[in-house]
Design goal:
Elements: H1 3-17, H2 21-43, H3 46-63, H4 74-107, H5 121-128, H6 132-142, H7 148-155, H8 159-176
Length: 179
């Protein structure tokens, strides 16, 4: 990165520290693609990367006064913040999977816990027709809000397979419910 660009970013960070929203918008426009690419490599998911970048810019806004150009370049400082945000997003996802996986063994086989979230008894009957893994994927995805990436890790299957299983399971459920 050119020295002129680094000076420009350092100036924007200085203005952001003073609460200048226009400078923050400009800083975001000039750096968001790089930060997104950095966190996307860490997280492997666009949705997770978007969350991490949002967290990173909140941190950049609040900590912009901490930036010291004598220590490093503005983009290196911002990338470090984004990297930490990505790690935090990954940890939150792992904690969510870990917490829910204990529930999975108890709740899904008899549909008891998911029953409160299901709108009709007919759906419960149709869900019981699915294989246990497929039923678990459907319940975790649509009752508990798990992403395909989280399901992929939980069931040790590729994301593309999870997507296919969910789609086919929804087709089976739709047919079972009468169309």
């Amino acid at each position: 990165m050119s020295e002129q660009r680094q000076d420009e970013l350092a100036g924007l960070l200085s203005k952001v520290a003073a609460g200048n929203r226009a400078a923050f918008r400009s800083l975001y426009e000039r750096t968001s693609a790089k930060l997104f690419a950095s966190v996307r490599r860490i997280l492997g998911s666009n949705a997770a990367a978007e969350d991490a970048v949002q967290d990173a810019y909140v941190r950049i806004w609040s900590r912009s006064g901490d930036f010291d150009p004598a220590i490093g370049s503005p983009i290196a400082w911002m990338t470090t913040i984004a990297r930490h945000a990505a790690i935090d997003v990954a940890r939150r996802g792992a904690e969510r999977i870990s917490a829910a996986s204990g529930e999975l063994d108890v709740e899904i086989p008899d549909l008891a816990a998911a029953g409160d979230r299901l709108a009709s008894g007919g759906l419960t009957t149709c869900l019981e027709q699915l294989e246990a893994d497929r039923r678990g994927m459907v319940l975790l995805a649509y009752c508990y809000g798990w992403s395909r990436e989280e399901l992929s890790r939980r069931f040790d299957k590729p994301v593309a397979t999870i997507k296919t299983v969910l789609r086919r399971s929804l087709i089976v459920l739709k047919e079972c419910l009468g169309g």
